[in-house]
Amino acid sequence: MAAHRTRRDFLKRSSSLTTLGAVAPWAWNLAAIRDAAAQTAPADYKALVCIYLSGGNDQHNTLVPFDPGSHDAYRRIRGNIAIPRTEALEAMELRPANPWPAGRSLALNPKLAPLLPLFNGGKLALVLNVGTLLGPMTLADYGRRSGVPPKLFSHNDQTLQWHRGPGTSATGYGGRLADVLQQGQSDNSVFGTIATTGGSFLNGANGSAYRIDIGGPTVLEPVANDAFLTETLQRIITASSPHLLQQAYADETRSALNASVRVATALKAVPDPTTIPATSLGLQLRIVARLMAARAALGMRRQVFHVTLHGFDTHAGMPVAHDALLGELADAMAAFHATTVSMGLGDKVTTFTASDFGRTLSSNGDGTDHGWGSYQFVMGDAVRGRRWVGQVPTIAVSGPDDVGSGRLLPALAVDQYMATLATWFGLPRSMLLEVVPRIGRYDQADLGFMRA
Amino acid sequence: MSQYDIEPPPAGTETASPEQGTLPVTPRSSAGNAALLLGATAGLCACGGGGAAVTDDDGRNPSPAPPPAGPPPEGANPNPAILAEQRDELAALPAEENLPAGAVPKRMPERSAVRFLAHASFGARPADIEPLRDLWRTGWLARQFDMPVSKSHWDNVLRIQSEGGLAIEASWDASVWELYLNSPDQLRRRAGYALGQIFVVSVKSLMSGGASRALMAAAFADVLEAGAFGNFRDLLTEVTLSPAMGYFLSSHGNRKAEYDATGQPLRMPDENYARELMQLFTIGTLELNPDGTPRLVDGKPVETYQQADVVNLARVFTGWSVLSVRAGDDRNRVPMVHDPRNHSPEEKKFLGTTIAAGTDGPTSLKLALDAIFNHPNVGPFIGRQLIQRLVTSNPSPEYVRRVAARFDDDGEGVRGNMRAVFTQVLLDPEARSPVPIDRPPPSWGKLREPVLRYTQLLRLLDIKSTSNVWNIWDQSDASERLGQSPGRAPSVFNFYEPGYTPPASSVAAAQLVAPEFQIVNQVSVLGIVNCMRGTLGTPPRGTTYNFEPLLALAASPDSLVGRLNTLLAHGTLSPATRSAITDAISRIPGTPANALLRVRTALLLVIASPDYLIQK
Question: Closest-CA residue in chain B for A54?
Fold first, then answer.
């Protein structure tokens, strides 16, 4: 609570810089750009980019079991939706610096080919069998229903747990990270949390992310080209009210008005990175890259972004739909990484994936169902790449990692995944509990996939 | 206009202050009215049980209205439900209205009519208001319930695809907007729209071929509207077997499990529909009390089902398929057909029900839907969401309990009678009480969702067709359009979820929910204002507006804004908002040439104001 009070005071003190009074904090951060000493580029800079794979990404068709025994089992269980062991797949076999468990190996889905050079070049790490947990857990615990996270296998509930962590907190990992790192910073250190789509990952104690459209900020159009009428409109749509819903709407509008023109101005000088494909994900990463390029004008030394690729709930039509999604993901990720390198930010930007859950190993004939543990990617020059952490699960229904139909009991917790990223981002060990309150339940608070 | 024909107070005499919600009840101008007011206010709960269609607080046993002391009030309708409505209105009479002691308003006040049409239709068209004022809610509902479907979505989409030459997915949009904006059977359309935000399908995710997708979405909308006043159990069957749902949640082509010689599964049934049917369409993830609050055991909520229930229920939905392409257009609307070869012969054990191994597909389906339909969660789970869609985001537990009780028993022992459920939602004392009009409790009401803002504005402007296609398309882009469009939710979780709370907001601090805020963000709040500004300037191609009644008021900004306050916001604009808008309009020189600019500007300022945006 002390931390929150400190930050609120800080925000209150600084909000007089804005033209329209008190605003939601993230918007204030953006609004403060001009006034709060953005004359010099920030001394250091870091950014985290969460790519959310909405719907629950199928882990086994993303990183395909490659050793002959596992691939045989995988093919037998998945039948027509399995990725066949073709030459294309053979070319995708991963040879990590830390060896696979004896006799095991994984290959990238051939649609992920653009990620292979990143992996081999040490810019991409794999986090294997990570999922929502309340603490370390065994199959026996699951059988006893002991310590099982609530509402497993449900999209919206598991998404909340990936965004926020276990428990009932309304804040997300990214939002809490912002809350803690913002606290105690000097006035000219500005933290931005920015999203192109919904989700609670960036919810903080005092506000949520600044929301931006792929085309840039939406700016209020003038009324009849008349300054007084336009100003009246602005006043009316931001009017305070004792009615709680009205106040919430007016607050959101005020934060939008405060930020929109300034962000639009800051972005004006930044060209669109057209080397990133014009896909759903690519367009989101383009605006992310532009906001990074505009960091000096925005006065931001730390940015956390949240973008979303929809469509991963592949119950049906999976072979075609999933391949297309992975192709879009890999093309966008690789081009985005190249963009950050060309901006001189290769080791300042870490991009990671997250998803509702993994999926069943069993097939329903045309797709797979909701699972639990999943595989994720971490990308950037600060990543200890060409490595994997976690567990390479046994490919079997009713195997040692299976809670039913090949739903993976997670070997790593989302808490550990997020704690590792937060630590790289500059969160002091002493503050870790404020962002990941249950991290003490695990032996490893840092999974080691980031360079110090 | 009779003496009791109550109008909103003239501009400048409004009694609400910016401190609305915290004010004591406005003092009345006569002792007689004050006494009546107290009686009516105190009677809100007791009288709420008075209507034939309205249960009492106990929620189960409809009880007659407490007999009024002495003779019926002057102007009173002998129908007890209407009498209860009339008594309610007394509580909201402006201070300067002088009614004889014992009298009630004979006609429904205009602003109450506008408010009710915001609950029960796509917004008040000018011509809708006067008939409703005579009929009161009770009479209007009876008429609407009995009104046949004026035109099916299916027929309209087919017409647009042929006559309009628009054999693409957008024929769905053109059709649905036209029917929502222009149909006389508004209650059925609105009820179907509300049900479609629970039983969600999205036209873009149905199947290849835009024209087929549009037809499939149309057939699904027809199922919801045709069944909106029937029984929820029938709706469950029709939704389950509809081609749209078959595609959207992939139960089309779902087949039984297959095992190898060692008993290892080679294929499992698709769990998609089984899970979402329980989670989103009927019972939810937590056991509920009859008032919609989570049932706690040892202080903890109880999950309604586990993964094993989903796995078992998934077996029920095997063997069903949409007709083959040889069926032509009909495959988009004919219910899925069953192939016993693909149906699971295994035992199906879920929610405490066991369907024996070997039970055939249609029988299994019937038994499973019966079991789900009879789960005690359905009434509060569906009832609360219908209240949220039509009336208010945070209904009291008592309101939910009364609606759920109506679901459980319509008064004649029938479970799932949706006509009774919608009646309770709309006539419940908490919904109809006009007290909040001037003095809304500081959290009551809901954000008017973008679709309803748009339809209300266009219906107020009496939008009419000038061609056989209304060119209103997908409006779901938030940066330039509404950020919402019928039948175009991003997933089965709709545009927003019933439990959504905007983070770190005044709503969150009060531990309330505000579902519609899930699509409120820095992009959409400005995007929709720009969209409305453009919409006011240019009607959608193929349509025209009628500004005449408002142009007649353009010379007097005060009258113009006062009129819009009634017609759009049912009198809920604060004095500060009214005077800000009136001042702004007064600044536009009052020449005839400027009349339209004044009207458009006043409309924009009203519909952009938070006073209007939160429907109380």
Answer: B491
